[in-house]
Design brief:
- By secondary structure, this protein is of the alpha/beta class.
- It has a single domain (4-271), classed as Nucleoside phosphorylase domain (Rossmann fold), CATH 3.40.50.
- It is 31% helix and 23% strand.
- It has helices at residues 12-27, 46-49, 102-114, 167-176, 196-204, 215-223, 248-271, and strands spanning 34-37, 51-57, 75-80, 86-91, 119-128, 138-146, 182-187, 209-211, 227-237.
- It has a five-stranded mixed barrel with strand order 5-8-7-6-9, surrounded by four helices.
- Helix 1 crosses helix 3 and helix 3 packs across helix 6.
- The longest helix is centred in the C-terminal third of the chain and has 24 residues, at 248-271.
Length: 273
């Protein structure tokens, strides 16, 4: 099936508007307030947030794909919070390494903005460059480094990224979780893990954690005028830090062991936004 985002002559924001209209029709919710993108380890959050109004297979919405990555559910959910706000939960992240192109990576963010979301929470599973941040640690993103050599911005679109991860939202998280560390996230393309030498380079240029998502989404969110909160679950120590070999099963195992705790934490944060 042809995806409209593959046609360079079609405006990706128009595709996002179509997707948003479909979500509104299917869910019966005219406007959503907060978008939540779930990464590895964060998938149990929906039940803690509030009433699940509707669950949609992502592939049923224009521009979205069924998930190809273990640990991602491939669904979109509309959730009613106790305070009356609506969360658009995106369990259908498209990773850049899947080969669809950067428009596809940014599509969920642009769709969320088109549904009315003014705030987006981006979560992920990541490797730690710092040996003291063991698997299971949650890190608040304060900045990022884009090592994908890509951008969701098209043409002469100049967007300031000075305060990309919103200070107010980071302050809220730290008020609720005083001991949470902050770090700089570096996105590589993947899907291969970094080499030990690449991790030395990442540490040298200021990265604290490494992963394969989030950065391109955050740039698209800032272009859309959204407030952005980013959080990483450390699923492993990066290559060369512990001396152990890396594998995706470790990511899944740490994520599974952390799901209940992260769901409670994330629900508290979102209920206070």
């Amino acid at each position: 099936m042809t995806n409209l985002l593959d046609d360079p002559n079609i405006n990706p924001f128009g595709v996002a508007l179509t997707a948003a209209d479909e979500i509104a029709t299917i869910t019966g919710v005219k406007k959503h307030d907060i978008a939540l993108t779930l990464g590895s380890g964060w998938g149990a959050a929906a039940e803690q947030l509030g009433e699940i109004v509707h669950t949609i297979p992502a592939a049923d919405v224009t521009g979205f794909h069924a998930s190809k990555v273990a640990g991602h559910k491939g669904i979109i959910q509309s959730i009613l919070l106790p305070n009356g706000k609506h969360v658009l939960l995106i369990g259908a992240r498209t990773h850049y390494y899947e080969g669809y192109g950067v428009r596809h990576v940014a599509h969920s963010v642009r769709t969320a903005a088109a549904t009315g979301c003014k705030t987006i929470v981006l979560t992920n599973g990541a490797g730690s460059v710092r040996p003291e941040w063991n698997p299971g640690t949650v890190v608040l993103l304060k900045d990022h480094i884009n090592f994908t050599a890509a951008t969701p911005l098209e043409g002469a679109t100049f967007v300031d990224l000075t305060e990309l991860y919103t200070t107010r939202l980071r302050g809220l998280v730290k008020k609720l979780n005083p001991d949470i560390p902050e770090g700089v996230y570096l996105q590589n393309i993947g899907p291969q893990y970094e080499t030990p030498s690449e991790i030395v380079m990442a540490r040298t240029i200021g990265a604290d954690i490494v992963g394969m998502s989030t950065v391109l989404e955050a740039i698209a969110a800032r272009e859309a005028g959204m407030d952005i909160l980013g959080m990483s679950l450390i699923t492993n120590l990066a290559a060369g830090i512990s001396g152990e070999k890396l594998n995706h099963q470790e990511v899944l195992d740490v994520g599974k062991a952390s799901e209940a705790r992260l769901a409670i934490m994330l629900a508290e944060i979102i209920h206070n936004i």
